[in-house]
Amino acid sequence: MRLGVLRERVRSRRSRTALAGVLVLVIAAAIAIVAVATSSSVRVKAQMIAGTPEGRQPVKLDTSLYLPATTPAPAVLLSQGFGGDKSGLDTAARTFAAHGYVALTYSARGFGQSGGLIHFAAPSYEVHDAQLLVSYLAGLKQVKRVDGKPQIAAAGSSYGGGISLLLAAADHRVGAVSADITWNNLSHAFFPNFGASSPGVFKKLWVGLLFGNAFPDPRTGGGANLSDLTPSAISCGRFAPAVCAAYQASAASGTPNAAMRQLMRQASPATVINKIQAPTQLSQGEQDSLFPLSEADANARGIAANGTPVSVVWRPGGHDAGGADSSVTTQALSWFDKVFAGQVKGTQPFRFAEQAGIISAATGEVSQQTLQSGGYPGLTGTPRGSQTVPVTGPPQRISSPAGGAPTVITSIPGLGGLSNRFDTALTLLPGAPGQTAMFTSSKLTKSLLIAGGSSVSLTVTSTANDATLFASLRDLAPDGSSTLPSQLVSPIKLTGMRPGVPRTVNVRLPSFVRNVLPGHRLELSVSSTDFAYNLPQDARTYTIALTGGRAATPAANEASITVPTTSGQAISAGHPIAWLIAGIVVLGLIGGAVGFVIARRRRILKPVPELFDVPVTISSLVKEYAGGYRAVDDVTFRVEPGQVVGLLGPNGAGKTTVLRVLVGLITPTAGIVHVFGQPVVPGAPVLARIGAFIEGPGFLPHLSGRDNLRLYWAATGRPDDEADFTTALEIAGLGASIDRRVKTYSHGMKQRLGIAQAMLGLPELLVLDEPTNGLDPPQIAEMREVLRAYAETGRTVVVSSHLLAEVEQTCTHVVVMHKGKLIAAGSVPEIAGAGGMQLSVDDPEKATIVLEAAGIGSHLVPARRALEDVFLDLIGGEE
What we know:
Layout: H1 4-11, H2 16-39, E1 43-50, E2 60-67, E3 75-79, H3 90-98, E4 102-106, H4 123-138, E5 145-146, E6 149-150, E7 152-157, H5 159-170, E8 174-180, H6 186-190, E9 194-195, E10 198-199, H7 204-212, H8 241-253, H9 258-266, E11 280-285, H10 293-304, E12 310-315, H11 326-340, E13 350-356, E14 367-373, E15 386-393, E16 396-400, H12 416-419, H13 423-426, E17 436-441, E18 448-462, E19 467-476, E20 482-483, E21 490-494, E22 503-516, E23 521-527, E24 540-546, E25 551-553, E26 556-564, E27 569-574, H14 580-589, H15 591-601, E28 616-624, E29 630-639, E30 644-648, H16 655-662, E31 670-675, E32 678-679, E33 690-693, H17 705-716, H18 725-732, H19 747-758, E34 765-769, H20 777-792, E35 796-800, H21 804-810, E36 813-818, E37 821-827, H22 828-832, E38 837-841, H23 844-850, E39 858-862, H24 867-874
Parallel strand pairs: 3-4, 3-7, 7-8, 8-11, 11-12, 12-13, 30-35, 30-36, 33-34, 34-35
Antiparallel strand pairs: 1-2, 2-4, 5-6, 9-10, 13-14, 14-27, 15-17, 15-26, 16-24, 17-23, 18-22, 18-24, 19-20, 19-21, 19-23, 25-26, 28-29, 28-31, 31-32, 36-37, 38-39
C-alpha cells in the first residue's frame, strides 16, 4: 500500500488532491479483498421474489439470500426497520451465514427496490409477504428440515420486530423469533394513555417522523421512490391511500379516528399474541421513547400466558440512541442456537442493563453493568421486589398555555437517550415557567435500584373539562442537579372532568432502570406540556396534589411512590451507548451557560511547561465509583510524540475509564492527567487538540453520515477549511452510503464513520477505544496502516483493543492494565521480550557441532514471545 502519500497529507493539509487518488485505490483494493474473502465462505444471491399483489398489480420484493459454507442449515428471515431497506441488514445476514445459517433479507414493500405500497404491518400485505418468503425458504434444499419441518427463524428490530411477531402468530413454520425494540399495541405506542374512555395523548413528533419515512430524501435522492405514483398520490408518499387518510385525519385532530384505530389494531401483536407458539426472545431498549419497556412487557406476558418460552432482555440503547446494534445479532444467534438444539424449556433468565452512578453536565460520570436474574419480574417487580418511598410537597397550581407554547422539552425523537447526559445543563436554559409541579423525597440512606415502572396516586383539578399532563420520576443529586432517566415521561389524559372538581388518578410512571445513590432524592414532577406530544389549544390551569398519604406539615402533604426493584448477578461490565456527538451538539447550543457552570466547578490546576511537548502524562490516577469500587487504582504512565500506544487489559481492567478521563468526559477521584502540559478537566481548551472515538459510534440516526460529520464539526466552532472533510470521508470508505441516513448503517459502517469523525481536523492526539470492532480483516489491516502513518507524522495515537495480535502489529508501545492497576508499560519489543533469555549464535548451521568449540561467538539476547503469551502471564492467567 502506498501510504506515504497519507503521511504527507497529515503533515500538511495542502497536499489534499494527491492523497485522494491513492486512498480511493487503497479502499477499492480493500473492498475487492473483502469481496474475495467473503465469497469464499458466504455466497450471496440477489433476486426479486413475488410478493402480495397490490390490487391487480403484481408486486416484486427485492431479496438477498446468504448461503453458509455448509448446508443444509437452519434459516433466518431478517426484516428491516421502518424507512430502511435490505442493505441495512447485510452485516447481520453475513454474521448469521458465517455461523452456519441460511439468511434471507428483503426490502419491505414500498421501500428500496421493492414494489407495492406501505400498509404498515398489515396482515394481508406485509405479514403475507413474509409468509411468502417463508414458503420460499421452506422450498430450498439448503434449508435444514427436522421431522419434515423446515427450521426457520424470524428476526428484526422495530418495524422488523413487529413483523416477525405477527408472522410467528400467522405461520407456525416459524420455529423461533427474536424481536428487538418493537411494539405490542400501536394504539398505546402512538397514543399513550389510550383506552375505552380516553383517546390518549398523540405522540406527534415520533408518529410524524415515521410518516416522513415514506417519502424520498430530497438531499440525497434516497428513500422511497415516488416515480411510479400519480400526482394525486404524491402527498401520501408510498403509503397506501387508506393508511395515509387515516393518519392525516388523526394527526389533524390529535385523536385516532375509527379507521386509524382499525389500522393500529390489525398491526398490533397484542391482537394475535396468543397464537405465537415459537420460543421468543424480546429485547427492548432502555433509551426508547417510541416503544418503551412497557411494550416488551405486554408482549412477554401475552406470549408466556400461552405457555410459550420467552426470554426478555432490557438492553442499553433503543430508538433514542441509534436503534439496533451488533449485540442484537449476537443475542439472536445465541437464542436460535438454543431453540434449534432443543435447549429452551421453562422459565428463561432475565437480563437488564443497570445504570449506576451520577450523570451530570460537569463531570459526565456514568457506570453501567449487565445483570442477570433467574426470571423476568415484569414492570412492577416481584411481590417482594418493590419498595415505597414517601414524597412531600404542597398542592401546586400549574398553567397550560394556549397551544402549548412555550413548552417543556424533555426529549426529541432520536436524541432522548443521549440528551440526558446534559440534563443538568439543559435546566439552565429558559424553560416553561409555572408549568411543572414537583414533589420530593427525603435523602436516600442506601442505594435504590429502580427497575420498571413506579406508581403514585395524584389528585388533579382542572379549569377545563379534561386534563393533559406529563408525569416523570427524576434523580435529584445533592448538588441540586436532577436527571430524567432516559428522558422518559408518562402522558396522562383525563376526560369527562368537571371544572373545579378534583379527580384522583393512579399514575403509572415511566419504566426505566436506574440505581439512585445514597444521599440522592427522588423527585416526582408533573408538567402541563411536553414538546413531543399534541397539546390542548386552549389555555387552562391545573392544581396537582398528592393523594393517599398523611399530612406532613400544614403546607405539605405526603404520599408514597411504589418503586419496583429487582436484583441480579453481574455478568459483564460496560458503558452506555456513545453520546459524544450529541453532547457536542448540545454544548454548541448552550455553550455559554454550560461554560459558566464548568468554569465554576473546575478544579484550579496549573499547566506544566516542561510537559508542553508531551502528548499524555498520567500521574497517580484514581477513579472510584459508588460503594468504594475503584475502576482505576494509582495508574501512572507517559506517552511520547509519534508513538502508537496500545492500552491492553481484560474486561473491567479500567481501560475505557482511563480514556474517558483522558478526553475530559469524567473527572478523576485523585491524580491528574496532562495533555501537552495542560491539565485535563471537562471543557478544557486543550481538548480541542484531541480526536476521540470512545464507547462506540454515537450519531444522529435520522441524518446522513455526511451531515453527521458536518454537524459535529460545526458544533466545535472551528472553520470548515480546518476540518479536512475529504480525508475523513476517504478514511470512512462508505462511498455513496455517506449520504444515506445513519440509521440504515451496519455496525461496521458506523464504526468507520466514527473513526473518520475522530480524525476530523487531523488532531495532534488521536484516542480510539476498540476502533476495529465490526470491521472485516482487510479493513482492520487498512486501519493498522492508517494509524501507523498517522503517528509517523509526529502525531500520537492511543488505542485500546482486545485483539492482542493486532496491537502487536500496530503499536509501538503497550500499557497493560488488570483490575484497575498498571502492571506493565513499555515498547512492544520490551514487553514481548519479557520472557527470559535465549542463546543466539553467529553461525546457526555449525551451532550444534561446534557450540562448545572456540571461535564461535555466542551471546544472550531477549527471548521474543507472542504478546498474547506475555499478556496472559502478566495478568496471572485469570482471564
